[in-house]
Amino acid sequence: MESKYIRETYCFKTSRVFPNDVNNHNTLFGGRLMSYIDDIASIAAAKLCRTNTVTASTDSVDFLQPIHPSDSVTLEAFVTWTGRSSMEVFVKVIREGLMTGERKIAATAFLTFVALDENNRKVNVPQVIPETEEEMQLHQTAPSRAAIRRQRREESKQLAGFLTTSYPWEQ
């Protein structure tokens, strides 16, 4: 399978923050931003493998700066690293003051997607080639995030085996 440049997976989305997008602190509702993040990350993943993908995990969403109604929010997503059938996608969220032009990193996120065929079986994905300093840094540090992800998944499986599936009203 031929490798692809990370730049081939780049996607961008810019939105304005409207009154129905904010929480009681008058900042962009975190759930709305998380939805934007998953949406754009899924597009980056599909651009790499050109097949169906599913979200396997959201490793982290770090909210670094509030996003206000006077801001626009731009999301930039790209695949940073691949395994056999999995892809790590990085999403950078930039807030821009519409009156001032000031830009700040408002959030960052790492998600993992898995490529599937038409029968929902895992398929191999191309490796990615970093070119910019940002891409190289994210690519080089991805294996350590993947190891943490595997450990966390095992811990989650163990926890799931302990948890009950009965509802409180059934006890």
TrEMBL record:
Its EC number is 3.1.2.20. Residues 7-119 form the HotDog ACOT-type domain. InterPro entries: Cytosol_ACT, HOTDOG_ACOT, HotDog_dom_sf, Thioestr_dom. It is an enzyme of class 3 (hydrolase). The keyword Hydrolase applies. PROSITE patterns: HOTDOG_ACOT. Signal peptide: none annotated. Gene3D superfamilies: Hotdog Thioesterase (3.10.129.10). Belongs to the acyl coenzyme A hydrolase family. This is Acyl-CoA thioesterase. The lineage of its organism: Bacteria, Bacillati, Bacillota, Bacilli, Bacillales.
